Target: Mitochondrial adenine nucleotide transporter BTL1
Amino acid sequence: MAFESQPLKKRSSTGVFGDVLYGTMMFPKELEIVKETNFELGFQVPDLGCIVKDFLKTREVREFVSGALAGAMTKAVLAPLETIRTRMVVGVGSKHIAGSFIEVIEQQGWQGLWAGNAINMLRIIPTQAIELGTFECVKRAMTSAQEKWNQTECPRVQIGPVGLNFSLSWISPVAVAGAAAGIVSTLVCHPLEVLKDRLTISREVYPSLSIAISKIYKDGGIGAFYAGISPTLIGMLPYSTCYYFMYEKLKKSYCQSKNKKSLSRPEMLLVGALAGFTASTISFPLEVARKRLMVGALEGKCPPHMAAALSEVIKEKGLMGLYRGWGASCLKVMPSSGITWMFYEAWKDILLVEKGHL
Model:
């Protein structure tokens, strides 16, 4: 039987889906499976040493450090006057400065003049650092905002025939910075002020810092550490605003009159003392009320608020009672203010001028 060769035909079959062609599926030559390659994830740990070093070199940090050093050095010298001032303000012991000195020495020895000074130093270092550092930062920010605002057209609101221009030129950057400095430092450091006063006024009740913290917390909780915070803030606002404004104003006026760029150290001492005297005189009644509220709990008759404290003082001692201890306060505030500014400017010269920040 002979077979004839026939041309190759495509075979097909019929199915459910119709004719199905059988053939070879061809893939493009370019399509290839890429082999998975290994990769490395690189992670570099930041150099914390360099970050900290750069941070410590910033102007803001050096201003804070200057304030802390100035405050610590001032309080170390003037701690006895602070003790006498606090005793006279709250009505403990003699009504005269010399008598208070003698009483403290007789009762507690010379060390009594530095009663509470450890907590006072712990208080003044962060307080002065925050206060002076905040003052410098806010003053720069406000001055820069005013300059940018004045370079552009001020926003204007037209209400019928009345037009209102919003301008920052009438705001004093120094006054705003002074108010901000006082408020921020008070909110952060007020508990240390309470501890310092308790250790100074009632040494027998609070013989040490740890006992004072424990007893105050046990008696009134966290809120006890903020006793008198309302009058403190209210009293701090005019004091701090006036204090920094007067210092900058006196400094600028004196330099202009003498045609000089900066004050000498004795001149800083005098200008700082005058600024402290003015601010203390204006806000002293509020300081009396503040002290009353802070230590009133020791006698079991703490006034409910600042107005009640002021009324109580006037009722007991008349209007002059609002200025009881004013002489001792000035005796403490004036040298303290002058010495603080002198030390602060000196540390700024060391930490800022030599590093090219000024």
Summary: The beta strands are 12-15, 18-21, 156-159, 162-165.
